[in-house]
Amino acid sequence: GEMAGDPMCVAILIGLGYRHLSMNGRSVARVKYLLRHIDFEDAQTLARRSLEAQMATEVRHQVAAFMERRGMGGLIRGGL
Description:
Helix content: 55-70%
Number of helices: 4
Order of helices and strands: HHHH
Structural class: mainly alpha
Mean pLDDT: 90
Strand content: under 5%
Radius of gyration: 12 Å
Low-confidence stretches: none
């Protein structure tokens, strides 16, 4: 359940087709904000690229760039 509340993971989960997410109450507002600002097709592309990555650091950098391009980098910078 904690993965769904992590801003670094939300777009990937949505891109993989998850539609029901479980998280603690403190994460709900932030995740709702992210979901309102993430395009489904872009999330699918991110998920596909993440699955193709060879290293976890590649995935983190891809997600960070994805979020920065959408003006939401501040939500993840503390987690890098």
